Amino acid sequence: MALDAPDSAETLRRRIAELVAEYHAEAFAPKPFVPGESAVPVSGKVFDDAELRLLVEASLDFWLTDGPYSDEFEKRFAAFLGVRHAMLCNSGSSANLLAISALTSHRLKDRRLVPGDEVITVAAGFPTTVNAIVQNGLVPVFLDVELGTYDVVLDQLEAALGPRTRAVFMAHTLGNPFAVGPVKEFCAEHGLWLAEDNCDALGARYDGQLTGSFGDISTVSFYPAHHITMGEGGCVATQRPSLKKIVESFRDWGRDCWCETGKENTCGKRFAWQLGDLPYGYDHKYTYTHIGYNLKATDLQAAVGVAQLDKLDGFIQARKDNWRRLHDSLADLDCFVLPRPTPNSDPSWFGFALTVKEDAPFTRPELIDHLEARKIHTRLLFGGNLLRQPAYAGIPHRVVGDLKTADQVMNGTFWLGVYPGLTPEMLDWVIASVREFVAERTAA
Q1: Catalytic site residues?
Q2: pLDDT, tens digit, for every residue of 267-299?
Q3: Given its phi and psi angles, is residue 44 left (phi above 0), alpha (psi -120 to 50 degrees) or beta?
Q4: pLDDT value of position 1
Q5: N or C: which end of the chain has fewer CB within 10 A?
Q6: How far is CA 44 from CA 40, 73, 294, 364, in A?
Q7: Which residues in the chain show pLDDT less than 70?
């Protein structure tokens, strides 16, 4: 009797995909929400069997560095933003480092940033927006933010301008766009680079245009807290081919070669270059024109990102809906400064920020303790006034104004989750818990 023929590799792949879908249904089945016992996270990854299947597909190909899924993701993500180029990397913080490092490239000639040049930013934000400035020997110029929008005070821009000011780099805070139009006009008037930290605001719009497409260069994060995730991961986006090549050089060890992984001699003269003091014909794949890093993502991460892109529009809408539910249900509580969109914007919310007013009958820690005791998780607005953080003691910097609002944010602001994994029952529990606490304190 003839033995059964062994299954082909392709047949086995199909069987594995079917098993992965079955595994997801069993291992990640929804759990009932029990108020006070189940956690209400501020953020988290939202996925189904599609992400698992593509992740396993990539692992079966054993293409461990960047590869076909990376290429697909970069093309689709650039198309989503409406820019020419998207360069995948290993985190949003690395994206920030790459974006600012790119602006220091000698290839930019008299427009390059050099140590001691100033970059305008805000004091109340996430550390790695500022870290990329400091790590390149540049000088951050700190501006204050507005309560409610938590974005830059536009009136301070002109006061921030100095003889060595060369760029503006700041984030769209919690998914709420800063006033990109006036900021871009300010940069154009004074010949400044504009870099957007779009890590918290994927899908947000200002005057109908997506944030991340206004600046000379922009960044995005794909950490699990963000709008889509690869676990770790980030991206740099630009319209400029010259900046694309520079970013890729800094990301890929500083090399001058632009061949994709697994390819060689794209330029057609791999052994015919003459750069620096190297001998003629030195292998272009081992010729370095920047002091770079290895900040690439893996194809496994990119595979997850490709599946997440299919869900992005729904994720953005869910965040908007959850933010609106919280806002409308808490709008009558006058002990808080409620969040508000920047004029002319359509935010893609990262979180729902509340600032406890200074004359409220309770403090932020008291309210947070109440919420955390009910398994409702909270976060502060990142580093608060970063100049109060020990990491920034003694760094070269300038300050415009007294940063009074940044201090108020540090002392009174926190945020609640709006991510797509939150159910109506979870949000109702959050709303009821906040209202109950406020009612008890105001009645006392």
Answers
A1: 226
A2: 888 888 888 888 898 888 888 999 999 999 999
A3: left
A4: 42
A5: N
A6: 10, 21, 27, 24
A7: 1-6, 444
